Amino acid sequence: MSEFRDEEGALHKGFNAVSAVDAYAAHIHSELVSLGKDPFEMLNQGVAGDRNDTHFRGVLAAANGNFRVIRDVAKANKHAFLTKGNPKKLASNGSGDTVSVSIGWGQGGYGVGGYGGASQLIVNCLDGSQKKLLRELDAALAYLDDVARELGLPV
User: Fold this and answer.
1) Which of 27, 32, 116, 154 has the most CB atoms in a 10 Å sphere around its CB?
2) CB atoms within 10 A of CB 67
3) In the prediction, which pLDDT does 106 show?
4) Rounded to whole angstroms, how far apart are CA atoms 139 and 147?
5) Using one digit for the tens of pLDDT, what is the confidence trace for 6-29?
6) Domain boundary assignment for the chain
7) Residue 103 pLDDT more than 60?
8) Per-residue pLDDT for 115 more than 80?
9) DSSP secondary structure string for all residues of the chain
10) Each residue of 52-84: pLDDT tens digit?
11) For residues 121 and 9, is the Cβ–Cβ distance under 8 A?
């Protein structure tokens, strides 16, 4: 995250930060399982079927829009372009949805443009909205920290 903050327009640093934050959710799941705890019961989510970290991330994404964007971007980056399932329900379905642009203050919607128009990564979401990647990452990371604390894990 700190490397991405230092160079917010660098695609590879943004993709690495997305992967790290997405993986954090899997680590929360894994830690709970290793402690003999059911992550789904702890979140009051009676989930039928697979009770793996992918399902866990789905539960978290349903509860938090910022994490949903990060989870979807991570999946899109991993596979380059998503075709299976229902990719139209995702925030992003291809790695090309994340772009480095220069958007000045007041451009691109509230909170998207940065001061001075420096390069930054933007996610062009399938619903037509634009999300500033660093803002989504910071909010998703804070959410996951809250989840970890709530579930009794050290942060």
Assistant:
1) 32
2) 26
3) 61
4) 12
5) 999 999 999 999 999 999 999 999
6) 2-92+133-150
7) yes
8) no
9) -HHHHHTTT-HHHHHHHHHHHHHHHHHHHHHHHHTT--HHHHTT----S--SHHHHHHHHHHH-HHHHHHHHHHHHHHHSB--SS-GGGSS-SBGGGEEEEE-BTTSSSTTTSBGGG-EEEEEE-TTS-EEEHHHHHHHHHHHHHHHHHHTT---
10) 999 899 999 999 999 999 998 998 888 777 666
11) yes
**Model pLDDT, residue 107:** 60
Structure tokens at 125: 């979401």
Residue 19 exposure: Cα atoms within 13 Å on the Cβ side: 10
Contact at 8 Å (CB) between 43 and 57?
no
Angle at 62 between CA 87 and CA 131, to 5 degrees: 65
Q: Which residue has the tokens 């971007």?
A: 73
Closest CA to 74 of 57, 59, 88, 86: 57
The pTM of the full predicted model, rounded to 2 decimals, is: 0.85
